[in-house]
Amino acid sequence: MPRLRLAHQQLPGVTVIAVIGEMDAANRAQLEAYIAEVQPAPPGRLVFDLSEVPFMDSSGLHVLLTCATNCLKDGGAVHLAAVQRMPARLFELTGVMVHVPVHDTVESAITAALAS
């Protein structure tokens, strides 16, 4: 099973989760477990740095959307940053950007998350 490399950084008011590798059904559980481990309680503002994610299937997308839904229920937000071409195409086809903000850089995603 391909493993993701995951890291996070707790900043004042926002948690940044960096994802490295392909997000798919083979590592969905790993990503879900990591988010549950590092996400503040109640869920707050999260930024996913996707700059090192060359591919994402519907399983990875589902994890991000579930996380975004859970955060919104508790007054938080999820922002996606630095999305590569293939995942960006998936977001475009599925209309994700209507529900989850996508930013060109991690820095702009952090700024927007803190303002939300």
Automatic annotation (TrEMBL):
Range of residues in the leader sequence: none
UniProt GO molecular function: anti-sigma factor antagonist activity
Segments forming domain STAS: 4-113
Pfam annotation, one family: STAS
Superkingdom field: Bacteria
NCBIfam families: ant_ant_sig
Entry's family note: Belongs to the anti-sigma-factor antagonist family.
Protein name: Anti-sigma factor antagonist
